[in-house]
Automatic annotation (TrEMBL):
The protein's role, per its UniProt record: Vacuolar Fe(2+) uptake transporter.
Protein name in UniProt: Vacuolar iron transporter
Gene source species: Canna indica
This protein's record includes keyword Transmembrane helix: yes
GO CC list: vacuolar membrane
One family name in Pfam for this protein: VIT1
Ranges annotated as biased composition (Basic and acidic residues): 125-138
Record membrane topology: Multi-pass membrane protein
This protein's record includes keyword Protein transport: no
Disordered: annotated segments: 125-147
Length: 239
């Protein structure tokens, strides 16, 4: 006894509009094309790489702003420990902003430039090992150079991030004449900014929010307290 046997033809790229048939020992077998959706893995990988690069830049900016905030606030608290003059406190914070921004920019420029030199040298070694012609090697090297980070952009971003963080305690203390209130406002403004930076860093790094914020805030408090205490202890008699 002959029975009808189903036969399925699987195709990954195109689906036929009309079914086809195949005869086998007098039995007509239906052939139906089934379309299979193949996910585009390359596009997903490119999106993940773009997000990863943006997250790294944002995280570096947050860390730079955090450095500017903590260092400038600690410097102002230290000067405020021995001098009640508003002008001296503001000038010390402004000097810390300029010096810190320049230091961060130069350090980032040297670091990124060294990284670029290492990657370019590695690309040249790879081209030599492949044994390609001079024209092809130069074209590949130029294309590869386009994907390398820019030292000037990295330096400018680092200086800008540091300056944005350092502006917070300066603005907080710039319009307050009372000595004790000024110190309290600087500490409060720095604490609020530290909480924000901790939250942003936790989101970018996919870390626990409360733990990350507490770590950043406690670290900033420790820096300001140590600077204030040491200047109060050793600077009162010297100045």
């Amino acid at each position: 006894m002959h029975t009808l046997l189903p036969f399925t033809n699987v195709k990954a790229c195109k689906k036929t509009s009309t079914p086809s048939y195949m005869a086998f020992n007098g039995i007509k077998i239906s052939l139906e094309a089934v379309e299979i959706q193949v996910p585009r893995v390359e596009e997903k990988e490119e999106q993940q790489e773009d997000y990863s690069q943006r997250a790294q830049w944002l995280r570096a900016a947050v860390l730079g702003a955090n450095d500017g905030l903590v260092s400038t606030a600690s410097l102002m608290m230290g000067v405020g420990a021995v001098k009640e003059d508003t002008k001296a406190m503001i000038l010390s914070g402004l000097a810390g902003l300029v010096a810190g921004a320049c230091s961060m920019a130069i350090g980032e420029f040297v670091s990124v430039y060294s990284q670029v030199d290492i990657e370019v040298a590695q690309l040249k070694r790879e081209q030599q090992n492949k044994g390609e012609g001079e024209t092809g090697g130069r074209d590949d090297e130029e294309v590869s150079r386009e994907g390398l980070p820019s030292p000037l952009q990295a330096a400018a971003a680092s200086a800008l991030a540091f300056s944005l963080g350092a502006v917070v305690p300066l603005l907080a203390a710039g319009f307050i004449s009372s000595y004790r209130v000024r110190l309290g406002v600087v500490a409060a403004a720095a604490t609020a900014a530290l909480v924000v930076f901790g939250c942003v860093g936790a989101v970018l790094g996919q870390a626990p929010l409360a733990r990350s914020c507490a770590r950043v805030v406690v670290g900033g408090w420790a820096a300001m307290a140590v600077t204030f205490g040491l200047m109060r202890l050793f600077g009162a008699n010297a100045l």
